[in-house]
Amino acid sequence: MDRGSKMGQNELDGGRRERPNAAIRCLEHSILKCPGRENDDGYELSLKRFIPVVLLLLTLVTLTLIPDVMAGDPSGAKTLEENSRAPVDYVWVLMSGFLVMFMQPGFAMLEAGFSRAKNVTNVLMKNLMDFSAGSLVFFAVGYAIMTGTPAFFLTGDAYDVDTVLNWFFMMVFCATAATIVSGAIAERPKFSMYLIYSVVICAVIYPIYGHWVWGGGWLSSSSFMIDLGGGYGALDFAGSGVVHALGGFVALAACMLLGPRIGRYDSGGKPIPIPGHNISLAALGAFILWFGWMGFNPGSTLSAHELRISIIAANTTLSAAAGAMASMSITWTKFGKPDIVMTINGAIAGLVAITAPCAWVAPWAAVLIGIVAGFVVCYGYWFLERNGMDDVVGAVPVHGFNGIWGLIALGLFADGTYGNSAVEGPLVTGLLYGNPGFFACQLISAAVISIWAFGTGYLLFYTLKRTVGIRVSPEEELMGLDISEHGIVTYPDFVYTEPARPARVIRMSEAPSSDEDENGNEPGTEGD
Fold first, then answer.
1. Is the dihedral of CA 78, 84, 85, 88 positive or negative?
2. Is residue 187 within 8 Å of 126, Cβ to Cβ?
3. Nearest one of 512, 472, 293, 275 to 399, comparing CA atoms
């Protein structure tokens, strides 16, 4: 009803206005009030409201002060003259980058589906803003740190078509690492804290380790590592370690400091399942991620002229399929019914694990890597759950544990048929093909990323916990972060209900027999 219709209706009602329900008034007052509100007639604007605007203005001022030096090739004319095949490679890398960017809605749908309805807006907002904030920060400082060049703000020599192409492809990888943490800590963190985290991981944590592996740093290029590996140091083709293990172990640190959601464990410490609100969204997200991974892995050749892309694509799909089948089989055996949630995570775990070795292993090895990934994600998740770790979407075992497995698998199964993103030697071989030195390089890399990601993540979230706080109040958490953090709900036409005590979810294998009621009592008897 538009404004004019409302006025007409008020006239028909004699100018009377129906008093709102007392519960609605209470909800409006307790939920939708903003900091600095003094009365019902207005709001007092606090300094906190101006912080985003001030930061944006400072960024704009900084950009205007940067000298407009064009020492590179901003038009592309010189690049095209030197390399007539460049357009094909540029289109290949850009299309692959677009696919990786499309993984962001995949993560958003997956996390939203595994979360409760009262927190979906918050999940979507975090996914949108970690990509937005991460892109700007990686543009300003992250890319320069990662490449070890003065490419801050992509000015000077960095104002170049080739450099900007590389920045874009690396940026979407950086955003992927940032968003992994969102799902693990869903339903309880402060949104403002999450923005700070997104800036720090994209400005410091990701670029530094990325430089060690992809930017000519010590893990890949030091003389010690090259001599140990037999002509090459630690490798990670598309990011099992650089992207996924990093995000997974930062998520582990965050989960430890945040603590579990209210109702996730009973008084005796026994885990109580909290089902997500929409498995359809989660499954859609998984399919989007699987599709986007075709940009993640084959695109990391950075050239359409590397025909190894066919094997990379096949390995990617085979590992994901094997991970899904393994997880389904494990849960089917354990619970008597195949579990869709763990099967989804098994597919993604297979994708994570094959990301590092996808260019250097045979298809049969990709299947084996995916099978192991399915075991790692299932038993890794149950191990964390038994030890009080509340990971909403299973990000730590999917990305953290399987990111490490991917690095190790590369050191085991590399078969010597492909070089370091080239057909020329030295060809990459692993332990099973007679190169224990390279396997040692991969073990070192796995240990370094675990310590670096968990250590910096723990330091970051511990600092935030002691300063701005990292978790919403219990009242806000029970209310739902959609309302308490954003003042809106995802499904306004739905009736939200929340039990006073979290209900126990009974798996199909635990369902009462026909001779028992839903509480497990014999007919004619009552439970305690």
1. positive
2. no
3. 293
- Residue 244's alpha-carbon distances to 133, 161, 215, 349, in angstroms, are 19, 28, 17, 10
Distance CA 65, CA 461 (A): 33
Under a CB-based contact definition with an 8 Å cutoff, are residues 445 and 241 in contact? yes
| CATH number for the domain that contains residue 223 | 1.10.3430.10
Please report, for residues 313, 314, 375, the alpha-carbon distance to residue 363 in angstroms, rounded to integers and kept in the order given: 10, 7, 19
Residue 426: CB atoms within 10 A of its CB come to 16
Q: pTM value?
A: 0.84
Nearest to 452 by CA among 140, 218, 143: 218
pLDDT of residue 389: 97
Q: What does the alpha-carbon distance between residue 380 and residue 392 come to, in Å, rounded to a whole number?
A: 14
Task: State pLDDT tens for residues 131-168.
Answer: 999 999 999 999 999 999 999 999 999 999 999 999 99
Q: What type of residue is 106?
A: G
- Phi–psi pair at 13, nearest 5 degrees: -90, 10
Structural domains counted in the chain:
1
Helix, strand, coil percentages, rounded to 5, for the chain: 65, 0, 30
| 443 located within any domain | yes
Q: Which residue has the tokens 């597919």?
A: 347
- The residue type of 519 is N
User: How crowded is the C-beta side of 441, counted as CA atoms within 13 Å?
Assistant: 33
Neighbours of 66 (CB within 10 A): 12
What is the model's pLDDT at position 18?
Answer: 41
Coil vs helix vs strand at 434: coil
What Cα–Cα distance (Å) separates residue 83 from each residue in 74, 413, 424?
15, 35, 20
DSSP 524: T
What is the crossing angle of helices 86-114 and 120-137, to 10°? 150
Residue-by-residue DSSP string for 470-515: SB--HHHHHH-HHHHHHS--S-TTSPP---SSPPPPPPGGGPPPTT
- H/E segment holding residue 39: strand 37-39
Within-domain flag for 216 = yes
* 263 φ/ψ angles, rounded to the nearest 5 degrees: 90, 0
Range of the domain at 296: 61-482
Q: What is the pLDDT of residue 192?
A: 96
* 377 burial level (CB within 10 Å; 0-12, 13-18, 19+): buried
Whether 406 and 430 have beta carbons less than 8 Å apart is answered as no
Does residue 366 belong to any structural domain of this protein?
yes
Asked if residue 102 is part of any domain, the answer here is yes
- Report residues of the chain scoring pLDDT below 70: 1-71, 495-528
DSSP 152: G
CA dihedral angle for residue 147, residue 151, residue 156, residue 161, rounded to 10 degrees: 60
What does the alpha-carbon distance between residue 335 and residue 5 come to, in Å, rounded to a whole number? 57
Contact 299, 172 (CB under 8 A): no
